[in-house]
From TrEMBL:
It comes from Thalassolituus marinus. It catalyses: guanosine(966) in 16S rRNA + S-adenosyl-L-methionine = N(2)-methylguanosine(966) in 16S rRNA + S-adenosyl-L-homocysteine + H(+). This is Ribosomal RNA small subunit methyltransferase D. CDD domains: AdoMet_MTases (cd02440). PANTHER family: METHYLTRANSFERASE. It comes from the Bacteria. Keywords: Methyltransferase, rRNA processing, S-adenosyl-L-methionine, Transferase. The gene is rsmD. GO terms for molecular function: 16S rRNA (guanine(966)-N(2))-methyltransferase activity. Its EC number is 2.1.1.171.
Length: 183
């Protein structure tokens, strides 16, 4: 596959339902599967509209775009890979989405320097890179905030004591979970 090859993802709900967006063929970039996104956004059906959202390790931006399509107030996309970050920006222009920002750089550094309150955080770092635990440790969230995490099925991260797990599912390859910060 050439370095200029691209793939597509489909937005599954909201105002941009069925729209297809391109994303670059980048090593380790794996958009959250349609069926997983459908489950996650069913879990979040009453929590996305009007929410301020952080899509850390955005990759294709699938989760953030899905949230914008469903009425998120704002999405901040963090993506270290320059071509992936550029494609997220291009897709935002294509959709005429003005309530989002893309930060092309290290998500862990950004979270350290910007301890902002978010209503919902998507944490789906590249697998086998030891990024999840440092990301969890850097998050500073207010009570009530939701955190969606996707990780390798074999990984056993440590979560803060004030994070209550609300939902989870595991496949052979990965686990996805939803937490809420308690008071």
């Amino acid at each position: 596959m050439s370095k200029h090859a691209s793939h597509q993802l489909r937005i599954i709900g909201g105002q941009w339902r069925s729209r297809r967006l391109r994303f670059p063929a980048v090593d380790g970039l794996r958009p959250t599967l349609d069926r997983v996104r459908e489950t996650v956004f069913n879990w979040l059906q009453f929590d996305v509209e009007g929410a301020r959202i952080l899509d850390a390790f955005a990759g294709s931006g699938a989760l953030g775009f899905e949230a914008l399509s469903r009425g998120a107030k704002e999405v901040i996309f963090l993506e270290k890979n320059a071509s992936a970050a550029l494609q997220i920006k291009d897709n935002l222009k294509l959709l005429e989405a003005h309530n989002a920002q893309v930060w092309a750089g290290d998500a862990l550094l950004w979270m350290e320097q910007n301890p902002e309150p978010f209503d919902l955080v998507f944490l789906d770092p590249p697998f086998h890179k030891d990024l999840l635990q440092p990301a969890i440790d850097k998050l500073e969230l207010l009570p009530g905030a939701l955190i969606y995490i996707e990780h390798e099925a074999t990984l056993k991260p440590q979560f803060p004591a004030n994070w209550a797990e609300k939902k989870n599912k595991t496949t052979k390859e990965f686990t996805f979970r939803l937490f809420q910060v308690l008071a």
